[in-house]
Amino acid sequence: MAAFRQPSDRVNFRHVASRTKSNYRGKPITPIEAPTGLDPKLVALGRRLFHDPRLSRDGTVSCASCHDLSQGGDDGQCFSIGVDGQPGDINAPTVFNSALNIAQFWDGRAANLRQQVDGPIHHPKEMASDWAEVLQRIGNDASLTAAFASAFGGPATAERVRIAIEAFETSLATLNAPFDGWLQGDDDAVSKEALEGFELFKRHGCISCHQGEAVGGNLFQRLGVMREYFVASRELRPSDLGRFNHTQREQDRHVFRVPSLRNVALTGPYFHDGSALNLEDAVHVMLHYQVGADEPDLAEIRKIVVFLNTLTGDTPKETL
């Protein structure tokens, strides 16, 4: 795909893998390859905006506040802290490889990364801002104004902010995970124990939801397929309703976008509510509630965790 030259407000990005290196051992997981077609000017501008707290009402919260690129693309908290020190309602998902998701947010209410930008800017517990305020602050910054003129040939608009942030977030692919090396034919890239964990991952049916390039992120599923996760004795939070909050369809109650398992070793705590503090706990919960294992075997859990650790790729370089 050719690089964009002069972007417009209608520009579209795609994350494209070439699929030419090998047959990837015939597995349902495929390696991540670098996204193409990104204009370096847009990526650089999006990077600046992603780290700019002036997108928030009081100038204290940036996208990077909740999606720290040095911490797996999230913030390591059960619930992120927004303006006025307010805790959010749901665990922040990683921004890494997010262009591969079928939709954005746990409930999938944004179709793509460009639509997703509006969510935190308007959310009263996140940035609590609006576009008029954001564009005024950008317009008062001569350097940012010049960057928009260079990238778009004109001033900042809400759509151009969305496009730039989308471009930067699309660039955040974590390449060269050890398991990708194994998929591409390097028998020494992962350990025997990791491969045993992969076999267990498939045998238990985890692969039915966690496959493809992102090892997940490409479908929606109910939390508690084989056993009821949201028991009557548990106090429900609004976010526990999942996709139902967006669609109001009963079949979407407690349904969430399946998270990607890329870099999952770096992105705890886990689940939409941050209730699993480590990978062992998360795997145990999934085996019990999603696939119906009566007493998940601890030795098997450890092997699955070893496999999951091989999905950690290179952190995208920061060149601010």
From TrEMBL:
- Name the EC number(s): 1.11.1.5
Cofactor or coenzyme needed: heme
List keywords of the entry alphabetically.
Heme, Iron, Metal-binding, Oxidoreductase, Periplasm, Peroxidase, Signal
User: Superkingdom, according to UniProt?
Assistant: Bacteria
Primary subcellular site in the record, as a coarse category: periplasm
Q: Which GO terms describe its molecular function?
A: cytochrome-c peroxidase activity; electron transfer activity; heme binding; metal ion binding
- What does the UniProt entry say about where the protein is found? Periplasm
The cofactor note from the UniProt entry for this protein is:
Binds 2 heme groups.
Residues noted as binding heme c 2 in the record, renumbered to the chain:
206, 209-210, 286
Question: What cellular component GO annotations does this protein have?
Answer: periplasmic space
Q: Give the signal peptide as a residue range, or say none if absent.
A: none
Q: Where is the Cytochrome c domain?
A: 192-312
The entry's comment on post-translational modification says: Binds 2 heme groups per subunit.
Which EC class does it fall in? oxidoreductase
Which positions does UniProt annotate for heme c 1 binding? 63, 66-67
Alphabetical list of PANTHER family matching this protein: CYTOCHROME C PEROXIDASE-RELATED
Record-given protein name: Cytochrome c551 peroxidase
Native organism? Botrimarina colliarenosi
